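Box 3.1 A note on notation
Throughout this textbook, protein chains are presented in two layers. The first layer is the amino acid sequence; the second is a token string describing backbone geometry. Keep the layers aligned when reading.
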Amino acid sequence: MTGTQETPADTSGPGFRLAYVPGATPAKWVRIWRERMPDVPLDLVQVTAAEVPDVLRRGDADAGLVRPPVDREYFSAIPLYTEKTVVVVPKDHVVTAADEVTLADLADEIVQHPLDDVLGWERPPGQPAFERPASTADAIELVAAGVGLLVVPMSLARLHHRKDLTYRTVTDAPESSVVLAWPQERTTDQVEDFIGIVRGRTVNSSRGRTQEPEKKASEKKKQPAGKKFVKPGRIRQDGRPQSKRSANKPPKNTKGGKPRKRS
């Protein structure tokens, strides 16, 4: 595996390892994870699209942000988002005159088709190059040198941004999606936690695991069973507490008071 860890390992306890392919954007979910579970380190492992199935099978990552196709007999997968497809061209290319293009607009152009292509063409657009470049990065270099164009998901065009290149949306090209995938037999508690995050569950969601809801104040301060709290009031002459209602009434006639009129 040629992936690199982007966060230092924490030996204080088990962590969560998330693989991701070039162009995938895990930053938002990683930030939420670290806010909710600061004691559980999350390690990012960047791998190529071709490597990620083996990385997950070997257990070198717990889950991954990957591009289809996914082996659904071995992996579980949740769709996350779908990207627009763009054509990468030199800034002075005629294609830049329009905001959007179609595949037919590229019919007479040489279009690079790298070996790590993720769009799954039935038939790649344009005219084929003399040789297929090994990677998207190599294809970008060829486009910058004036040798053909390149059709890729927008995130890859942004990832390989150069000042001398730009891109335009291709309206009728296949789109690429990103999914969260993990081995079915290893659906761990931490995988469930990350699923809750990508699905937008709150920290107190009934299906979430990250934190138990705080107990209500009424549960924390329960009175002992069988005892009823009585608010202190005035003390009657017989020594028993006087209720608030009776305390506000004038006292009954006693000796020394005005005698009751007899009929």
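The mean pLDDT is 82. The chain has seven helices and eleven strands.
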